[in-house]
Amino acid sequence: MEKRVVVAVSSSSSHTFSKPTQDSIKLLAGLGVEGDAHLGETVKHRSRVKQDPTQPNLRQVHLIHAELFEELQSKGFTVSAGQMGENVTTSGVDLLGLPAGARLYLGETAVVEITGLRNPCAQLDRFQPGLMKAVLDQDEQGNLIRKAGVMGIVLAGGEVRPGDAIRVELPSEPYRPLERV
Question: At residue 1, does pLDDT exceed 70?
Answer without folding.
Answer: no
